[in-house]
Amino acid sequence: MRVVIAGAGAVGRSVAAELLENGHEVLLIDKSPQAVSVERVPEAEWLLADACEITTLDEAALERCQVVIAASGDDKVNLVVSLLAKTEYGVPRVVARVNHPKNEWLFNDAWGVDVAVSTPRLMSALVEEAVSIGDLVRLMRFSQGEANLVELTLPEGAALVGTRVGEVAWPQDTALVTIIRGTRVLIPDPDDALAAGDELLFVASTAREAQLEELLSPRGNAGS
After folding, report:
1. Of 4, 19, 183, 192, which has the fewest CB atoms closer than 10 Å, so is most exposed?
2. Contacts of 184 (CB under 8 A, 6+ apart)
3. How far apart are CA 211 and CA 202, in angstroms?
């Protein structure tokens, strides 16, 4: 997979290193000569240029990319790169970094963003996830389709404890993707019985989150 990352700061370089380790082809773009540190990620391609310029993106051959990551420290830059990648080059997947929470509402499909990653929101969500039982925690927003990655730890006394996954009438537009049980990561099987303390990860539409939280609460209704 070919990935272009706009922004070669600490975040961009870290993402590039991970992707390269997983066997992907990566091009890093930055207009700052200080940021273009080829020796830090020598396996990547590098381009010293302004990622907001069409000529730069032409040189980067964005039409051959499967993913563009807008990872700069400037939200305006990330929005422009996302919009150009989606509308001018038809990049299938655009991931954008949100630096300031007040700008998060802009990072949606209108600006070409498929997935918005807000570091402040993610950090607060991880804190909530660590201390919350029975409360739904939103970990990540997928802009297209109005879906979110959400987590809920099944509390003692929930009606669904002991119920098989396949017997649960999950809300529409909701998918259980992973069960974390102690140190184990389980791919949900219809015959798996839910247990108190299970961390359940869902992809769910925003409109269904309240239904999902109610279903998994001690007051929720088990079965279909």
Report:
1. 183
2. none
3. 13
Residue 182 has phi, psi (to 5 degrees) of 65, -120
pLDDT for 58: 97
- Give how far Cα 10 sits from Cα of 47, 106, 167, 169, 202, Å: 16, 24, 46, 44, 30
Tokens of 101: 């929470």
Question: How many of the other CB atoms lie within 10 Å of CB of 140?
Answer: 17
Sign of CA dihedral 83, 85, 89, 92: negative
The enclosing H or E element of 131 equals helix 119-131
Average pLDDT of adjacent 10-residue blocks, the chain of 224 residues: 95 92 95 90 96 97 96 96 97 93 90 83 50 67 73 88 94 92 89 92 90 81 50
pLDDT of residue 162: 93
Say how far residue 155 (Cα) sits from the centre of its chain.
26
- pTM, full prediction: 0.65
Q: What angle do CA 124, 127, 131 make, to 5 degrees?
A: 140
Whole-angstrom Cα distance, residue 66 to residue 92?
Answer: 6
